Amino acid sequence: MTANTAPALLDLAPLGAGHFARIEDKVAALMRTRETVVAMQGEALLPLEACIRSAVRPGSTALNIITGPYGETFGGWLRSCGAEVVTVAAPFSGAVTPAQVADALRAHPDIDFVSLVHAEAATGNTNPVAEIGAVVREHGALLLLDAVASVAAEPLLTDEWGVDLCVIGGQKAMAGPAGVSAVSVSARAWERIAANEQAPRRSYLSLLDWKERWIDGGRTALPHAPAQLEMLALEQALDRIEADGLDGVIARHRAASAATRAGVRALGALAPYVIRDEDAAPAATTLRAPEGVDARDVVAAALAADASVPVQAAAGSLAKEMIRVNHYGLDADREVVLASLAAFGEGLRALGVPVADPAAVVRAAGDAWDAVIAG
Ligand SMILES: *Cc1c(COP(=O)(O)O)cnc(C)c1O
C-alpha cells in the first residue's frame, strides 16, 4: 500500500475540455483580448517560435526589433523561415522609439511582419508598445509581441494596441508556472497563417493544429492530454491576480522598480542600467556595477550578506557589468526591495567600496515606493 500522506499532485480528476477552455478565457481577460487565445503546452519559447514559423515564409520581409537577448533569438528563427530580416536595435540601457520603427517601415515598404519584445527581464528595459503598435498597424504588417516579462507587471492591452500575436508566460510577474504559456491570435493573423504552406502542421509547433482540432470544433474535445498540473497552477495564478486586483499587482511591480532605482541612486556606487525611468521594466531592475568592480563579485557579496534576496548577475556578455534584481510576483514587495538594497550596501562595504548610510537608502526607496502606491 501507499504511504499514509496522499501525494497532493497525483490522482487528480482529469482536466476536461470545459475547464481548459475556461482557463484560456481567463488568460484572454488578463491580456485584454477578444481574439482567440491558445494555451500552449510548453514554456513560452514554444508559442514564440510557433508564431514566427506559422506566420513567416520565404518571401516575407520581417522587421526584428532588438532591445535584448530575446530579440536576437527571434532574428535567427525569422531567417530560418526564409524571411528577409531588417533589424532595428536599441541599446539595452534604453528603449526603441516609435520614430525608429516608422523610419524602418518607410525604408522597407515590403515589411509584412514585425517582432517586438515588450519588456526584457534580462536587460530590464521596456518598450512603448502602444505607440509602436499604431505605427505598425498604419503600415499593415502583423505584429508579434513577446509579453512574457510584462504581463501583470505593467499594462498589456493586446487588442487596443493592435497586437496580432501576443505571447505570455506565467513565470514572471504572474508568479505562476513556467511549463505552460499562451498566445493570442488575431483574425488577420489566422488568415496569414492559413495561407502559409510552410506553417507547421501536425507538429508541436503548430498553431493551425490547435485551430483545426480545438477551436473550430468549439473547444469541446482536447486534441491530446493537457499539462494538467501546469494548467491548474496557471489558473491559480490567474485567480490570485483577479482576487488581488490587476491594478494592485501592476502597482506593486512598478513600486518595486521605482524603489530599487531610487534606493540605488541614494546608495551610490551602483547605478540603474536603464537610464530613463520610463524605459525601466517593472518586472526586473538592472544595475551597472561600479567602475573596476566585477558585477559577479557584487552579486556574490550581496548574497553572502543575505542569501534570500532575488539578485543575480546578468547572463552572457553582460555578466561583468550588469546586475539584476528580480521583482517577479511576490518579490514585488517593499520588504524584499529594502532587503536587496541592504544586501548591496553590506556587500559593497565588504568589497571596500564606499556607499551611503543605510538609513538614507531606506528613506529614498521607501519614499519612491509610497509615491507609486499613492498613485
Ligand atoms: C523570461 C522571458 C521569456 C521566457 O524565457 P525563460 O528564460 O525560459 O523564462 C521570454 N521572453 C522574455 C522577454 C522574457 O523575459
UniProtKB/TrEMBL annotation:
Gene3D superfamilies: Aspartate Aminotransferase, domain 1 (3.90.1150.10), Type I PLP-dependent aspartate aminotransferase-like (Major domain) (3.40.640.10). Substrate binds at R324. It comes from the Bacteria. GO terms for biological process: glycine biosynthetic process, by transamination of glyoxylate. The keyword Glycoprotein does not apply. Keywords: Aminotransferase, Pyridoxal phosphate, Transferase. Pfam families: Aminotran_5. Residues 80-318 form the Aminotransferase class V domain. The modification N6-(pyridoxal phosphate)lysine is found at K172. The keyword Hydrolase does not apply. Belongs to the class-V pyridoxal-phosphate-dependent aminotransferase family. This is Alanine--glyoxylate aminotransferase family protein.
